[in-house]
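Practice record 12: protein with zinc ion.
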Amino acid sequence: MARCKSWRYVAASGDVESLPGRNREAWNLCSNKVDRGVKRCTQCLDALLFHPNPAIRQALAVEPGLATSTLEFMLEDASIAVVAEAEAILRQRQERQLDSLLPSAR
Ligand SMILES: [Zn+2]
């Protein structure tokens, strides 16, 4: 069984400014069990999706390999910057999918 390796934001800390790992009261290192190939548990993902600091949510949006469903959820974010990142990544993925419909260049 794999373990979550994410920082988990503790909303009750009231610290909206510190970055992951900087304040151990605001950020716990998680070790919840996760399925193989999954790097973050749903508790950690939710804590990041609802973090009050848009810079944290923006960092999540650009994380490589983020699930398409998570990016689609982020299209509803209150921050224009977060929405723009999520849109750009979703567009790139769609373009890559369309590229795969074409024969490779000769
Ligand atoms: Zn976790």
